Write a sequence for this structure.
């Protein structure tokens, strides 16, 4: 007599079993953390309310500086990145070569190194040079150079996503290549790349923590530097928790916005 074969589980049943195993493992990890963690020590190190309260209202200056640094770098990145993207798709080969080199260099270099070069390398090479706005100008250029390379690639991808029929229709009406790109293709491309541009804002918000390398003062320091200073003076990690929460206050809404914009774009 032939051996009976066991009936195979349906795909839905396999998914349920897999999901049950994952939930079980996750619950076990949470329970292990709750049981074995030294909550008293955690509270002493990270949850000192008096230290947290002592950071206010001074921390709002650092919070505001973080926003300003982010916006300045993003504006610089857009102003430089969009022309670089147009050069990447230009019919003039030297433009394409320059834009490709620019993108590869500033995407390949760490943002920290670019800030060093802007803050210390350029003044060494060109003595007496002054950045408009002081530290704010250095940050706008330093972080903006890196940001512009990523923005250029995002915009280039958006340009490639615009239907070719749009270009052909514009050219058939007698528009030049440049006018077609600027008035027809680019506006559509920018709408397409709004979600990745929002993600770039999130990345710039976090990269603003690198500004400390420029030697900021009390009036120009950002959240990360302020939290580290408070950590040193209080010998407690509570300022790091407060700084992290304030970063999340900036980045979480931007991340949610980016996801909603992506969903809206997918639905069209």
């Amino acid at each position: 007599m032939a051996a009976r074969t066991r009936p195979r589980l349906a795909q839905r049943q396999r998914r349920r079993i897999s999901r049950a195993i994952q939930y079980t493992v996750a619950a076990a990890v949470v329970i292990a953390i709750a049981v074995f963690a030294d909550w008293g020590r955690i509270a002493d190190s990270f949850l000192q309310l008096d230290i947290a309260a002592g950071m206010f209202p001074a921390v709002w200056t650092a919070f505001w500086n973080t926003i300003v640094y982010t916006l300045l770098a993003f504006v610089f990145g857009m102003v430089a990145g969009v022309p670089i993207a147009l050069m990447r798709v230009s019919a003039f080969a030297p433009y394409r070569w320059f834009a490709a080199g620019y993108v590869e260099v500033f995407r390949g270099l760490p943002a920290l190194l670019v800030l060093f070069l802007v803050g210390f390398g350029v003044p060494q090479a060109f003595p007496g040079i002054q950045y408009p706005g002081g530290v704010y100008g250095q940050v706008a250029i330093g972080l903006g150079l890196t940001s512009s390379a990523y923005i250029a690639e995002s915009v280039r991808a958006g340009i490639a996503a615009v239907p070719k029929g749009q270009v052909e229709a514009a050219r058939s009406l007698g528009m030049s290549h440049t006018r077609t790109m600027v008035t027809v293709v680019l506006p559509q491309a920018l709408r397409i790349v709004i979600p990745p541009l929002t993600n770039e804002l999130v990345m710039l918000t976090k990269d603003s923590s690198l500004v400390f390398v420029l030697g900021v003062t009390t009036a120009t320091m950002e959240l990360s530097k302020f939290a580290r200073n408070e950590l040193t003076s209080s010998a407690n990690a509570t300022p790091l928790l407060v700084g992290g929460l304030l970063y999340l206050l900036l980045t979480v809404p931007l991340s949610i916005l980016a996801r909603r914009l992506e969903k809206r774009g997918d639905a069209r």
